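Query structure, 148 tokens:
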């Protein structure tokens, strides 16, 4: 029985691993830690693959991210946007870049955003069967965090 386009597109954010189905939530927040954008991918998808989509049509003075986002193409893209790059270089990088360690301390705001979202049990345990309904639940939880 063939799947229609709607059901296959709704499940495209489910990844397979040894532990079962997994999903990864990518988030963008502002300087105050307020949610701005969410993307959902399969669990085995690398974080950096969604960086360009997260930053699309965003004007930022600085972009703070962890070492998983350290790539030459992303640093060049952020420089073209006019944003200062606050991403610590990976240890195996041949030419180590400098970054503002004091500004990097603000990266915990996105971690605090995830903590606030996981207070909603439906987000933390992913009750929804489809990716679109799970993303909608994440957005409802984000709205609730903004209202409180």
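Result returned for the query:
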């Amino acid at each position: 029985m063939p799947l229609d386009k709607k059901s296959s597109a709704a499940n495209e954010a489910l990844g397979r691993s040894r532990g079962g189905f997994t999903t990864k939530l990518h988030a963008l927040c502002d300087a105050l830690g307020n949610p701005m954008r969410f993307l959902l991918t399969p669990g085995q998808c690398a974080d950096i693959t969604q960086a360009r989509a997260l930053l699309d049509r965003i004007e930022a003075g600085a972009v703070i991210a962890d070492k998983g986002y350290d790539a030459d193409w992303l640093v060049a893209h952020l420089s073209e946007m006019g944003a200062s790059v606050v991403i610590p270089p990976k240890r195996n990088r041949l030419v180590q870049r400098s970054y503002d360690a004091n500004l990097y301390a603000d990266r915990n705001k996105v971690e605090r955003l995830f903590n606030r979202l996981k207070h909603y049990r439906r987000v933390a345990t992913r009750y929804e069967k489809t990716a679109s309904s799970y993303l909608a639940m994440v957005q409802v939880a984000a709205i609730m965090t903004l209202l409180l």
